Amino acid sequence: MFEKVQTRKVYMEIVEQIQNLIKEGKLKSGDKLPPERILAEKLGVSRPPLREAISALEILGIIESRGGKGNFIKNTFNSTSYAQRLKELEKEESPFELLEARKVVETEIAGLAAEKASSEDIKEIEEALNRMKNALNDTPRAMEFDRQFHVAIAKAAHNSILFQMMNFLADGLKESLWVNIKEKSWALPGHPQKYLEEHTNLLEAIKNGDKKLARRTMYSHLADVEVDLLEE
Q: How far apart are CA 73 and CA 18, in angstroms?
């Protein structure tokens, strides 16, 4: 008689509202959505879940982003794989909740890595950074090496529980919602070079055994990423 209570992600509620507006004919193919800041106000939500919803709608093929011109309704659920893709998206982690957790966990991981990292650990972190540097013009590869860089730092912290936590968080960086949002950030002029510089500074803090600086640099880097993901 009773069903399990489930917490619905805010961005999926926004997706459902856009779906309903299309089904009711209030939004049609070719219609332009309001700018994100205005749309967030109309929906009564903050911009992070709205950005996640926009990403989900793009993945589902419902809207498309037209290079700086805005987001436009693309089609009306004609794809045979639509229901399956929607179900998969509902299982994914919220990109901004993922970042929130990373700021908590990875900040301390960086401090421990500065304290405990061996020469082999440093070498592994450096290799991931160099691979990222050599792939700056290939966004998917650069993002994967970015992920490997952060996992290597977690390994250097020599705490098995934190390493398991980092692996869980790193799995979220492979999910389509995160990839869709982050790829846009990587595509903005100067962002790849900025991320490379922030990673280089983080590596130097760890190599020098400076725990406070490593924590501060990691937090600052992840906070910058969060701001960048909301950039229009």
A: 10
